[in-house]
Amino acid sequence: MAVSTGAGAGSKFGFTTGQVIQEFLYDDDADPAVREAVEEATGTELVDEEYGDVCDGTLIWWREDDGGQEELTDLLVDAQANLDNGGLIWVLTPKPGRPGHVRPADIEEAARTAGMLATSATSAGEGWSGIRIAARTRGR
């Protein structure tokens, strides 16, 4: 199966031109094609964990050795605090069978604990899967 690159791969995350996307836990194993596709879709460079302003979306590169559900829950809360209303959070984890893989159920549980919902999943590149996390909406 061919891996999509370019603006199509970046926009499949729901990111659009002009958005600022904050990236957490970037390391040497992060997929450069995914990063480049997001930058191409937004027309802006990804900003790091130290970014001090509001952003429009978040990529979290999460691996088994980054911590357990508690640590991911805390990171999701921190990431959401930096988001503009309606911003998207994507948790990217190595695909099954690859070192560092995290079960989707563990990510979903961390999201629930943080008061959020895991809403969809996608193949984020050759070696990574992505799970979209959204804030819960309150009924009126």
Automatic annotation (TrEMBL):
Pfam families assigned to the protein according to its UniProt record, in alphabetical order: DUF3052
Name the record gives this protein: DUF3052 domain-containing protein
